[in-house]
């Protein structure tokens, strides 16, 4: 008798975020003031460190949701202080670290996250990325035998994994070949991206063929529109399934909302955003990953699609309560109560 698959594996972007405080245009910021004077004399930036990237963000969020199933992060780190941060945060959240490969050649991947306050109190983010060890992450680094025990395996970010973004004549991308292999082992595949810019849109186009090997495509509206050429996120969500072959499509639309989910069986589901009071809003870093974590949790628990996307929207709203990507996430019961209130 076959063993029932359980748990969620996150494969890919394993990154440390360096979070600078929210700044206003024209504001002078002192990066290292605390090294030289008392903070009362000259306030400096207090940089915070947290995990970043799909695998670490979604993994920690899922661990905090605490569904009672295994969560694992498959990625690659360096041999440096940022690697120690990742190990500590994963360990603190009861996620094993033995699935992390260590590169002797490259440093741990890092994203500098700068928050800039713009008009009407809104905040925008600027990212500076060091590819580091994840830049070398390739097919040979993936433990397919271990992945086969999980119910769901999510991969990402596409466009931030150079070795998996490479073209493949049959599967669109090397990532597609990986997803097809994982599907054959009976594991549900999921995929997420970073948003393409003009300089890498040609790479993104390769993924159109790859979506045929994706069971759960959970992406934002810009990505969905770029893949399908439909500006309307509702039409793009449907096209991800009907035209590009994904099994289930979810399109989250950020602050403007709403979000959408589509399968051929259930049709289109629309989920409005939850309203977050201004005094509870600290930053939107990681909101998309929080949405993905909430949705994957619902799929793992065999909830209906409508409940999954509502739980995901609630998880994303809750995530806005901390400047880091994962600091505000709560347990399943808290999120369910939040949904109903």
Distance between the termini: 43 Å
Number of strands: 15
Estimate the strand proportion.
15-25%
CATH top-level class = Alpha Beta
What does this 3D model show about the protein?
- This protein has 341 residues and is of the alpha/beta class.
- It has one domain: UDP-N-acetylmuramoyl-L-alanine:D-glutamate ligase (3-Layer(aba) Sandwich).
- Helix content is 31%, strand content 23%.
- The protein contains ten helices and 15 strands.
- A nine-stranded mixed sheet has the order 5-4-1-8-11-12-13-14-15, with helices on both faces. It has a four-stranded mixed sheet with strand order 3-2-6-7. A two-stranded antiparallel sheet has the order 9-10.
- α1 packs across α8, α6 packs across α7 and α8 runs antiparallel to α9.
- The mean pLDDT is 90.
Secondary structure elements and their pairing?
Elements (H helix, E strand, L loop, with lengths): L7 E5 L2 E5 L28 E5 L1 H12 L5 E7 L3 H12 L7 E3 L7 E8 L5 E8 L13 H4 L4 E7 L8 E2 L3 E2 H11 L3 E6 L7 H10 L5 E5 H8 L4 H10 L5 E5 L6 E5 L3 E5 L15 H14 L4 H15 L12 H9 L1
What's this model, at a glance?
The protein has a single domain (8-14, 54-106, 132-340), classed as UDP-N-acetylmuramoyl-L-alanine:D-glutamate ligase.
């Amino acid at each position: 008798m076959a063993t029932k698959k359980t748990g969620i594996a996150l494969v890919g972007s394993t990154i440390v975020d360096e979070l600078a405080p929210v700044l206003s245009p024209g504001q002078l910021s002192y990066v290292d003031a605390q090294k030289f004077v008392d903070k009362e004399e000259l306030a400096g930036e207090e940089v915070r460190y947290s995990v970043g990237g799909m695998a670490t963000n979604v993994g920690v969020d899922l661990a905090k949701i605490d569904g009672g199933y295994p969560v694992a992060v498959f990625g690659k780190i360096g041999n440096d202080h940022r690697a120690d941060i990742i190990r500590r945060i994963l360990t603190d959240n009861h996620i094993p670290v033995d699935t992390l490969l260590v590169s002797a050649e490259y440093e741990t991947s890092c994203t500098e996250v700068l928050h800039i306050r713009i008009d009407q109190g809104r905040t925008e983010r600027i990212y500076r990325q060091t590819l580091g060890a994840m830049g070398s992450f390739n097919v040979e680094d993936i433990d397919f035998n271990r992945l086969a025990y999980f119910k769901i395996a999510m991969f990402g970010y596409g466009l931030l994994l150079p070795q998996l973004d490479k073209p493949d004549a049959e599967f669109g991308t090397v990532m597609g070949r990986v997803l097809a292999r994982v599907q054959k082992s009976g594991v549900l595949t999921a995929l997420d991206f970073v948003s393409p810019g003009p300089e890498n849109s040609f790479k993104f186009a390769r993924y159109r063929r790859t979506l045929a090997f994706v069971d759960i495509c959970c992406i934002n509206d810009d990505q969905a529109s770029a893949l399908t050429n439909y500006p309307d996120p509702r039409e793009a969500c449907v096209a991800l399934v009907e035209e590009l072959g994904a099994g289930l499509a979810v399109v989250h639309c950020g602050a403007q909302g709403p979000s959408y989910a589509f399968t051929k069986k259930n049709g289109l589901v629309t989920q409005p955003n939850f309203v977050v009071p201004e005094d509870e809003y600290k930053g939107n870093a990681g909101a998309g990953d929080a949405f993905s974590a909430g949705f994957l949790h619902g799929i793992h628990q065999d909830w209906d699609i409508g409940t999954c996307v509502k739980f995901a929207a609630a998880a994303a709203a809750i995530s806005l309560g901390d400047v880091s990507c994962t600091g505000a996430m709560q347990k399943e019961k808290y999120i369910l109560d939040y949904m109903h209130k």
